[in-house]
Amino acid sequence: MDKVQLLKSLKQEGFSKGIIDAFSKVKRENFIPENMKFRTYEDTALPIGEGQTISQPYTTATMLSLLSLKKSQRVLEIGSGCGYVLALMSKIVGNKGKIFGVEIIKSLTDKSKINLQNYKNIIIYNKNGAAGLKEEALFDRIIISAACEEIPAVLTEQLEEGGIIVAPVGSQYEQTLTSFQKVKGELEIREEIPGFIFVPFV
Question: Which residues are marked as active site?
Fold first, then answer.
């Protein structure tokens, strides 16, 4: 599959123009190790080192759809890995938006900073995402790109009222992509899509 075919496939799945445009503008090959570049536009997850993966494009698009991003928003990604999802979100929220990534593995943090050096609205931190990112809170949206059994309470605190968190929630063997909205200080489930497998939350 090449990029044109991938974009056509995502379009047929009914993803929004904003999401399709982001996939069109961001070069996935820039976020994939040299020995995997020939598989760049396959609709599958690929290894990026340190036991981590870059998610399948369909899965990423589904998460972005659940996130309901808007222009100028402040967005936090926990487990930002190689930085690909940060780049996609940067295109969707636009220059007035602000994207923050937290990645616990230093080598991936360093690599993602190189991958994203031309993006002026992205900041990446090398730290444990379980604590969120208090120094930059509050956020309009939070996306967790690793499997978790529950949403850490601290992330709810760092989310704006009315804001949305999207995460793969479940056991280490299978998760349900879940969209939560903060209503009166508590998280309420908006939508659930079962049948996904992510690397575990570290």
Answer: 55
